[in-house]
Amino acid sequence: MEIILIRHGKSAWQKSGWINPAQFAQWIAAYDAHGISVDDPIPELTVQKMKQANVVITSPLPRALHSVQRLLPACLVEENELFREVDTPIAFLHLHFLRLPVQLWLIFARLCWFLGYVRGVESYAQAVTRAQKACDLLMEYSEKYGTVAVVGHGWFHRFVGKQLEKKDGNELFPSERRIGTHVRIH
User: Fold this and answer.
1) To the nearest whole number, what is the mean pLDDT of the chain?
2) Phi and psi for 137 in degrees, rounded to 5?
3) Are 155 and 8 in contact (CB under 8 A)?
4) Under DSSP, is residue 149 helix (H, G, I), strand (E, B) or coil?
5) Which structural domain, as residue segments, surrounds residue 79?
6) What is the CB-side half-sphere exposure of residue 74 using CA atoms within 13 A?
7) Per-residue confidence at 169, pLDDT binned at 50, 70, 90?
8) d(CA 112, CA 68)
9) Which of 11, 36, 106, 138 stands the most exposed, by the fewest C-beta atoms within 10 Å?
10) Residues 29-55: tens digit of each pLDDT
11) What is the pLDDT of residue 63?
């Protein structure tokens, strides 16, 4: 039995530059609304891993759904909200004069989130709880179906991977089960 965590491909939304907090909120919404770049090459190993799966689960976000379509177009997929990405909080919305590069906003937002700033998004503790639920579902599916693939998102895969590692070796979950295999589309 194997649980395979596959990160979605490179997003089709690649706009960069210096933006203010309100524009960063719009950038996040656009990033979440876009699929993946058609020019992003898919490693053969990723395709092989997907073909081994008896069950494929995906996040409902377009970049995960489009990744599955590019990997195995005829694949039956279970779309599950549990596997969506960890939300990105938008700090300092009132500071319209503050402009930073997109990548710096992303780092800053995630750092604020880890430090407890959640303003309208899921907290770190809530994300861990969701990852535990996702882990339990994956373990159940793995017991029932064998190899399970999840096409999702980097941050949330880290949380799920940690939960899977905690369960590995537990008497209830035989150690021959391979878990936490991380394969990236790009």
Assistant:
1) 88
2) -65, -45
3) no
4) strand
5) 2-184
6) 1
7) low
8) 31
9) 106
10) 999 999 999 888 888 988 998 999 999
11) 96
Number of domains within the chain: 1
Q: Quick one: tokens of 1? A: 């039995």
Contacts by residues 98-106 (CB-CB < 8 Å, ≥ 24 positions apart): 98/20, 98/21, 99/18, 99/19, 99/20, 100/18, 100/19, 100/24, 101/16, 101/17, 101/18, 101/19, 102/15, 102/16, 102/17, 102/19, 102/24, 102/27, 103/16, 105/19, 105/21, 105/24, 105/27
CB 82 within 8 A of CB 138: no
Query: pLDDT tens for residues 133-166?
Result: 999 999 999 999 999 999 999 999 999 999 998 8
Structure tokens at 84: 């969506």
55 within 8 A of 79, measured Cβ to Cβ: no
* Residue partners of 19: CB distance under 8 A and separation at least 6: 27, 99, 100, 101, 102, 105
Task: Return the H-helix or E-strand segment holding 33.
Answer: helix 21-33
**For residue 183, pLDDT beyond 90:** no
